[in-house]
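Work Package 3 (structural annotation) set out to generate three-dimensional models for the target panel prioritized at the project kickoff. During this period the team completed the workflow that converts sequence records into discrete structure tokens, so that structures can be stored uniformly alongside our sequence database. As a representative example, we reproduce one entry of 201 residues exactly as it appears in the project archive.
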Amino acid sequence: MTPSSRPDRPRLRRTAGDRRAQLVQIGLELLPTTPVQELTIDEVARRAGISRSLLFHYFATKRDYYTAVTRAAADLLLEHLLPEPGTSTEQQITGMLDRYVGWVETFPQSHLAFVRGAAGGDPWVSDVYEDTRSRLLAVALTALDLPDDALRRQLVLAWFAFTEDLVGQWVLDPTMARAELVELLRAVLDRLLQVPPVARR
């Protein structure tokens, strides 16, 4: 049998799960330069080698696709921020802050769109944002060895908001060295957590 007469090998078909994962991965690869809300479905389909209509076979709507990419990015962020086991509290928090700054430097426009989308009340962004903050809050309280009470949760969440805003501005206009930024954020957190518990009446 000559090579030209050999029957073609059957192509391996992607499962629906594999195809969805591929499409989400393409969205993630575009995030450094394109906020998720601005991803072009035609471009995603082109990179995947499929038609636009086939993409909507795996994601019923554009919003469903955007939500999947946003949730995948949030999961990657959380995994990226997790403190290394066996390190001191200081090393854990400083390391998390430094990695967060690096994340925003890599995805500045996507980070800004994520935070603004949640603040603007866009439901699909808000759901992912609130879930991400809740999970990150649990990580922070554990790393700081703090009790999970209402006061500490409020203080750490307020610090999250301050950190998001300051880091977002710093990436656009770095007015201090990166190490100084991390030190400042840690100092603000320490100061907040020095607030004595309010006596119950």
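The radius of gyration is 22 Å.
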